[in-house]
Design a protein that fits this description.
The protein is about 40% helix and about 15% strand. It is an alpha/beta fold. Strand 6, helix 6 and strand 7 form a beta-alpha-beta unit. It is globular, with a radius of gyration of 16 Å. It binds 4-methyl-5-hydroxyethylthiazole phosphate and magnesium ion. The site of magnesium ion has 4 residues, from loops. Its cofactor is Mg(2+).
């Protein structure tokens, strides 16, 4: 945890993940339930469509003072005046993002290999996504399934804020926090829930219990 990343429950949202419910509505309900940061992750949109969704989502987020992170699109991140950007191991490297977007306030970087931890890319990042903790249907092209043991190991190596992702839910939230996560990132357990506010509230409650 630090001033740039004091967040505990991170919603990673896409239109597809919302099962036909309007994205902005799901985001708003999730915020009311306890989500305190949101990433818009649209892997298949054109930049124009992605930007439109980001600008529209910003109207909701400004109302609640919740920061927006854009997944893997520097142009959309800058143009939507996002708080920051999240990149994976095979995306534009964090050092390049820093050069291309000096005003970026929050840069997230996914850790898929242990060797990434001792790198310039990790050094310039504001938080690390530990990806994935558990197997998930939401993302199939993963490398290392860290599990709780892997998360504990990483906690012992770095002081950077750690965001756990990959099948995070109300059942495992407490244990994942106790294993060293600072924040949990969630797609389906909130976006796919019949009541996203209630789902977020249950996860948030178990996070708070572990602090
Ligand atoms: N990166 C690693 S796992 C994952 C991403 C984007 C998907 C997590 O989705 P879910 O539905 O919360 O398991
Ligand atoms: Mg990527």
């Amino acid at each position: 945890m630090n001033n740039v990343f004091p967040y505990r429950l991170y919603l990673v949202i896409s239109e597809d993940a919302c099962n036909g419910q309007p994205l902005n509505k799901v985001a708003e309900m999730a915020i009311l339930g306890g989500v305190d940061i949101i990433q818009l992750r649209e892997k298949f949109d054109t930049s124009e469509v992605f930007l439109k969704k980001a600008m529209s989502l910003q109207e909701v987020l400004y109302k609640y003072n919740v920061p927006l992170i854009i997944n893997d699109n520097l142009d959309v991140a800058r143009r939507s005046k996002a708080y920051g950007i999240h990149v994976g191991n095979s995306d534009l490297p964090p050092t390049v993002i820093r050069e291309g977007w000096p005003e970026c306030q929050c840069l997230g970087y996914s850790i898929e290999y242990l060797k990434q931890l001792i790198s310039k890319e990790t050094l310039v990042s504001d938080y690390l996504g530990i990806s994935p903790i558990f197997d998930t249907l939401t993302k199939r092209d993963t490398v290392t399934q860290w599990g709780l043991a892997g998360l504990r190991q990483i906690r012992g190596i770095t002081d950077k804020p750690l965001v756990a992702i990959g099948n995070m839910n109300a059942q495992n939230a407490y244990d994942v926090m106790k294993a060293g996560a600072d924040c949990l990132a969630v797609v389906s357990a909130i976006c796919g829930a019949a009541d996203p506010e209630k789902a977020a509230g249950e996860i948030r409650g178990n996070i708070e219990r572990a602090l």
